[in-house]
Design a protein that fits this description.
429 residues; alpha+beta; elongated; 11 strands; 15% strand
C-alpha cells in the first residue's frame, strides 16, 4: 500500500474581496485596515512561506507553498484545503496539518478579519473537528481495514467504482485511487470538505437554537423570578438577541455558496464519475438550510417575546424601587417640616447633632432594607406579552401582618420616641 497525499480542510463563508485581502497579507504582510503592522509581519513569518500565487479557474484561489512541505489552497468562497506528502507515521502527518492550520494559518486569517461584525462567542468557543482525507494508491481491502482501526474509525459507508473507491469513517475519508486522474480526486476532496463543513455549520446553528430556547424556557417554566435576578437575565436575553442577529445574517448568506458550488460541479464533466457520492448533495444542503432559516426565525421571535416580557418585569421592579425611595424621602422631609413649623428658632446642641445622626442612620438603614425587599420580591412570569401577572410575594411569611405595615409602624414609633427627646427640638426646628 502506498499513501499518495493527505488532506485537511475547513470552510467559512468569504468572498473575492476577502481573498484579495488574504493575498495582500500573504504576499507582503499588508492590510487595508488599521492593524498592527508588527503583528501582521509576525503572523506572516510564522507561516513559513516559500511562495504565494493567485490562480483563476471556475473559482479564484490562492496557492501557498510552505517551507515545511505543506501546500495550502484558499478559495474565494472561503474553502481552505491543506495537504502534504505522508511521513512515516500517518498520524504525525495529520497532526502536522491540523497544527499548522489551527496554530498558524487560522490565527493569521482571524486577525486580518478581526474588525467588523464579530463571530458570536457561542460559535467561537466551539471546538471544530476537521475531516481529513487520505489518498491511497491501489490499496487492498485489508489495508483499508487496518487504517480505519488505526484511527478508531467505524466504517460508515463505501463506494466502489472501476477507477476509485471511497471509504468513509466519522472524520476519516480513505480514497483508494485505482486509475483515476489525481487532479480529479483532489477536486472531489475539495467538494467533500465544503459539503461536510457546510452541513457542520448548519448543525452548530441548530444546536445553538436548542441551547438558547431551553435557557429561556427553564426560567419561564419556574413561573416566578426574584427582582435581583431580573436585570441579569434580561441582559442575557439581550445578548441572545444580538447573537441571533449576527447568525441570521450569516445564514442568509449561505444559499449563494450552495448554488455556486453546484454550478461549478455540473459544468465539469470529469466530476460525473463521482456522482454516486456527490449527487443531490447540494439540493439536500439547500433543503437543510431552508429548515434552519425557519427554525432560526422562530428562535428570534421567541427571544424577542422573552425580551419584551422581562423588560416589562424589570421596569416594574425599577418603579417599585423608586416608589420606596420616594416614600422614605417624603417621611424625612415631612418630619423636618413638622419640626420647623412647631418650634422656635433653632439652637445647635450636642444632643441635637446626635439626634440628627441617629435620624440619618435610620434613613440610610430604611433605604437599605427597602433595597433588600426589592431584590427579594418575586415576580410572576406570565408569557402573555404584557406582563399583567406581576405580583409581590410576602417575604417574611412567619411574621404576622403585612411587612410594609409593620415597617411603617416601627418607623413611626421610633420617630415619636426621638421627637419626645429634648435635644430633638434643635434639629426639627
Amino acid at each position: 500500500m502506498r499513501i499518495e497525499r493527505i488532506y485537511v480542510g475547513g470552510w467559512f463563508q468569504r468572498t473575492t474581496l476577502h481573498l484579495s485581502e488574504i493575498y495582500d497579507f500573504l504576499k507582503e504582510a499588508n492590510s487595508p485596515l488599521d492593524l498592527d503592522q508588527k503583528k501582521l509581519t509576525t503572523l506572516r513569518d510564522d507561516l513559513l512561506i516559500d511562495s504565494v500565487e493567485l490562480k483563476v479557474d471556475n473559482l479564484e484561489y490562492i496557492v501557498l507553498e510552505s517551507s515545511i512541505s505543506i501546500e495550502i489552497k484558499i478559495f474565494e468562497d472561503g474553502l481552505i484545503v491543506l495537504s502534504k506528502l505522508p511521513d512515516k507515521e500517518l498520524s504525525k502527518s495529520v497532526f502536522d496539518l491540523t497544527s499548522y492550520y489551527e496554530k498558524k494559518l487560522s490565527p493569521a486569517i482571524s486577525y486580518i478579519f478581526s474588525l467588523g461584525a464579530p463571530i458570536p462567542k457561542e460559535l467561537a468557543n466551539i471546538k471544530t473537528i476537521y475531516p481529513y482525507f487520505v489518498v491511497l494508491n491501489k490499496a487492498k481491502v485489508k489495508d483499508i481495514k487496518h487504517l480505519l482501526e488505526e484511527f478508531s474509525q467505524e466504517k460508515y459507508f463505501e463506494v466502489r467504482k472501476k477507477s476509485f473507491e471511497v471509504y468513509r469513517g466519522n472524520k476519516l475519508y480513505l480514497i483508494n485511487n485505482l486509475s483515476e486522474k489525481f487532479s480529479d480526486i483532489e477536486k472531489f476532496i475539495q467538494e467533500q470538505i465544503f459539503i461536510r463543513e457546510f452541513k457542520g455549520q448548519l448543525h452548530r446553528y441548530l444546536n445553538l437554537h436548542r441551547i438558547i430556547w431551553e435557557k429561556i424556557a427553564d426560567v419561564k417554566e419556574k413561573g416566578k423570578i426574584r427582582g435581583s435576578e431580573v436585570g441579569k437575565f434580561n441582559d442575557k436575553i439581550e445578548s441572545y438577541a444580538k447573537t441571533i442577529n449576527l447568525i441570521d445574517a450569516r445564514i442568509n448568506q449561505m444559499g449563494s455558496y450552495i448554488s455556486t458550488r453546484a454550478s461549478v460541479l455540473k459544468s465539469d464533466p470529469a466530476m460525473e464519475k463521482f456522482s454516486d457520492v456527490l449527487q443531490f448533495k447540494h439540493e439536500t444542503l439547500a433543503d437543510t438550510l431552508s429548515y434552519i432559516k425557519d427554525i432560526w426565525g422562530m428562535t428570534g421571535n421567541y427571544v424577542n417575546s422573552a425580551l419584551d416580557l422581562f423588560s416589562s418585569i424589570q421596569a416594574k421592579s425599577t418603579e417599585a424601587s423608586v416608589t420606596n425611595l420616594t416614600i422614605i424621602t417624603s417621611m424625612g422631609v415631612g418630619a423636618t417640616l413638622i419640626g420647623l413649623f412647631a418650634q422656635d428658632a433653632p439652637e445647635i446642641q450636642l444632643s441635637g447633632v446626635v439626634y440628627f445622626i441617629i435620624l440619618a442612620v435610620i434613613g440610610y438603614s430604611a433605604n437599605k432594607i427597602m433595597r433588600v425587599i426589592a431584590r427579594k420580591r418575586t415576580y410572576r412570569i406570565q408569557d402573555t406579552g404584557n406582563c399583567q401577572g406581576y405580583k409581590i410575594m410576602d417575604i417574611l411569611v412567619p411574621l404576622k401582618g403585612r411587612l410594609w405595615n409593620r415597617f411603617l409602624y416601627e418607623i413611626i414609633g421610633i420617630y415619636r420616641v426621638l421627637r419626645s427627646h429634648p435635644g430633638s427640638k434643635s434639629v426639627l426646628k
